[in-house]
Amino acid sequence: MARTGDPFDAWVRPHLAAMQRYAARLTSPAHADDVVQEALVRAWRRWSTYDAGRGEPLVWLLAIVRDRARRVRPRQVLTLADHDRAVELHPEDIDVTRALDGLSPRQREAVDLYYYVDLDIATIAELMGCAEGTVRATLHQARLALRQLLEVEHD
Amino acid sequence: MTDDIDRLLRTQAERWRATVPPPPDVTTALRHGRSRVRRAQVLAAAAAVLVVAGGLAAGIGLLGHGDQHGAHPAGPRPSTTPTSTGWPAGAVPWRPLAATDPTLPSTWLPASPDPADAAGVRPCTASDLRASTGPGDGAGGTLYRRIVLTLIGSEPCRLSGYPTIEPLSHRQRLDLPIEHQSSPDALFGADVPVKVAPRQPAAVTLAWAVSHSCPAADNDHLRVTFPGIATAYTVTGFGMSTCDQGEHAAAPLLVGPVHPLSSTPARKTSPYDDVTATGDLNLTARADQPLDFAVTLTSKHDLPLDPCPDYTITTSAGESSYALNCAAVPHRDAQGRPYLPAGVPVTFAMRADPGRASTPKFLWWLTTPRSALVLVVGNLTVTGGSGPAEGTVTGTVSLTGGPAGVADTTDVDGTVTAARGDGLTRTAPVNSGTFLLSLPPGHWQLVVRSQQYDGGTPCAALAPLDLAAGASTTIAITCQRK
Hints:
The complex is a heterodimer. Chain A is 68% helix and 0% strand. Chain A is mainly alpha-helical. Chain A is globular and about 50 Å long. Chain B is mainly beta. In chain B, a hairpin with a 2-residue loop joins strand 21 and strand 22. Chain B starts with a helix and ends with a strand. Chains A and B meet through helix 1, helix 2, helix 3, helix 4 and helix 5 of A and helix 1, helix 2, strand 4, strand 21 and strand 25 of B.
């Protein structure tokens, strides 16, 4: 097992925050720990298969997080039935959360990775398996769609 | 046009990130990790097993889904013989030039206000500042409070660092852990000196997971002491806390440093920010005919096309990237480089494989350094076509062999690319060792790429797959580790 100063620990540590955010986005902040724990175990076992010359470790780790997240539980969707939380939520946040659910899966993934997980375009492109231009276009389309969805919300 | 949506998302995302707990410790995670035996989904029906040797695919210029730049554009290859009059007279001719992924010029604009403005300004005293709490907001059970520091007089002063916060409940100090936070934007701000001036207030952001802090407490006030200022300020607190069943700990009070109330973060800019693209992409095309259209680029300023940018076209057939035909642009600058003259529209002829399906996402865009796009979007209607129905290929991918003691891997993630002899390619993701491809009939070569296999080296099938029109077949691909 990894110990402080262990190579695997040092290698994965810079990426832990992004892994946690991604896991929280795919499931919920409350379940992120479980997902990241399982992802770390998996990454540690498969660490020998990773080639640093072939790609960024962050992308490799996030792909494992994504895989693990599918097995934990589905994304917790905020609904107005969460009345306790809704009282403390900014009204704008409620609208945006609901509008995000109206995006296509690809658009939602790009928005989550760019805004919430806070990744750069190149990393997102590698993670989504597409060109950087595609990511930018997807984000643009998502913003257009959100504008329409939010305008409908306020009608 | 979507800048307001961009700002909205950034703001909400910052608030959401503050609700995400810190990641687990690596050592603890590995100690408590569970071992699961995962088996990829085994597909029923007959399967052709292809034993694969490591190495590159031979004779096929295939690239993975993310590799758009190389000797061949990833995607269908339209004929270069003009077949339609979709190109206006005077348009820069279309050529299928391989994308080169050039590094286009860009610069960083500094953040505003510049922290250097605070240099040489006298330190603030208690008599310089008035503290008030701005409107709070929250997300996911966390409330935010902003303490705004307004200059009382007219002479600017300097303030920096983290304030000391004492959460109070009926004048008694609440025992809450305090954690310092910072961020590059104005949510918490960066820990840099701040010049407080007339109409330029400073602020401190506090956050507390008020719905997840036990035991319940009534934080009615906050006592705030700023670095270098002896006098404490008392402001409104977060109010009553609650917690969910199973929660036991007091949530930490997050405290940001003194930062400008209004600020603009550093951002990247490039000459392409002032380029617009226009074109009529609301078109109708035949499924078996190349689609000719035109895109016009207009720059507000003289823009040298050196290096020459790439562009990408997306239809239902997939996406193809090419280099712009800069050499054929009729305008030259003083250095002899092709360029877009300021305010002069330059039209480029374009050609694409329309695919077989209509799509509202017929996209053309220029690859530029910023997230702002030089983009044209259209609705493509595809009609006719004499081709037969597509079939489906469902498959599994596993890794075998390698050093002694290394187990077979069936839970493989990556991509699979199918290529036909006429240059048509399709790519699909491989998730947990399984994939699904929809392909026209023909003779297909499949290549798998996964970081788990030799760091992404293509794993090529030796035997091609023959797919009949409308047929469904399964395949198991085994990549032999070296």
